[in-house]
Amino acid sequence: MAGRTASEPAPRPVRISRVLRLSGSIASMLLLVDLDGVVYRGTEPVPGVAAVLAARAAAGDDVVYVTNNSMWYRADYVARLAGMGAPVSPDRIVSSARATALYLRDLEPPVKCALVVGGAGLVHELNDVGIEVVLSGDAAERWKANGRDAAAAVGQVDAVVVGLDLDFTYARLACAAEAVRAGARFVATNRDPVYPLEKGLMPGAGSVVAAIETASGHAPISIGKPGPLLLQIAAHAVGGDVAAAVMIGDSLVTDVPAAVAVGARSVLMLTGISKREQVASLAVRDQPTEIAADAVELAAALDRLARADVRA
Ligand SMILES: [Mg+2]
User: Fold this and answer.
1) Among residues 34, 61, 192, 250, which one is catalytic?
2) For the domain 25-68+226-311, what is the CATH superfamily, name and number?
3) What separation in Å is there between the alpha carbon of 208 and the centre of ligand 1?
4) pLDDT tens, 128-168?
5) Could you tell me the distance, in angstroms and rounded to a whole number, from the CA of residue 200 to the centre of ligand 1?
6) Hey, what CATH topology would domain 109-222 get?
7) pTM of this prediction?
8) Quick one: which of 92, 148, 206, 229 is 20 to 30 A from 237 by CA?
9) Where are the domains of the chain?
10) How far is the CA of 189 from the centre of ligand 1 (A)?
């Protein structure tokens, strides 16, 4: 190798992870994509977004879906997203339920048995990583039958895992709170206060979590957005660098703050709950990197971010 003369500039340090993601002159990106309000609204696709994501995936981007919704199993999303033309496979769905399962699996010591206050999808995700589940509904039945002895009704569990539970009851609350007080780890899939449906707002997982927090006197670890864990776990699951990712979401309350928390860039989609006027009232560091009103503007925003990666 030829020596460098004194007049030659020293080579710039190269970030290997970034160089490896370069393909030709276009940088491929890790796209962390929220679902409701971005890819679809309720049962209706947001026009053009699935096609934009499919084009990005075909060009080499990694598309991973990150949703706070904890009620469904990964496979439930695959048919729905594929039917809309979005690029998808089960390992590209990291719901708060899946992320919670991965988080518990990787704890030291790992969680072996959990009391679950939540939906079937959450139970399925925990089972998938080998965690034994005690259903809060079953514990509640034992509690009613055994003279309200919550400790006996639950048995020995390492964790209490809480998501949105449409069948939440006082008895389930009593069992979960007792297990937390007895020393089980308290893990929330997310703390969304409400859950929007076509006919209005329903209580979200955060409402259930708050009841257990109040009754137990202990605060949970929360996996979902706006905290950093969901995005970190999603990036880790595909071997990506979360700080180099782009979060695409419709919420200034969850999606954009989560991106800020992990040092990622973000695109705020105006196709869901947050409005353009709300951005100006945020401190600059809390604002999205890009704002897109529709799929056409999303495609343009992602092009700009990809070019910024090449220049970096
Ligand atoms: Mg959303």
Assistant:
1) 34
2) HAD superfamily/HAD-like (3.40.50.1000)
3) 20
4) 999 999 999 999 999 999 999 999 999 999 999 999 999 99
5) 15
6) Rossmann fold (3.40.50)
7) 0.90
8) 206
9) 25-68+226-311, 109-222
10) 15
Contact 33, 53 (CB under 8 A): yes
Cβ neighbours of residue 222 under 8 Å, at least 6 residues apart? 187, 188, 189, 190, 191, 209, 229
Active site residue 34: yes
How far is ligand 1, taken at its centre, from the CA of residue 215, in Å? 30
User: Do the first three CATH levels of 25-68+226-311 and 109-222 match, i.e. the same topology?
Assistant: yes
How far, in Å, is the centroid of ligand 1 from the Cα of 257?
13
Give residue-wise pLDDT tens across range 165-221: 999 999 999 999 999 999 999 999 999 999 877 788 999 999 999 999 999 999 999
How far, in Å, CA of 146 to CA of 245, rounded?
Answer: 51
Residue with tokens 């609350």: 173
On whether the CB atoms of residues 27 and 309 are closer than 8 A, the answer is yes
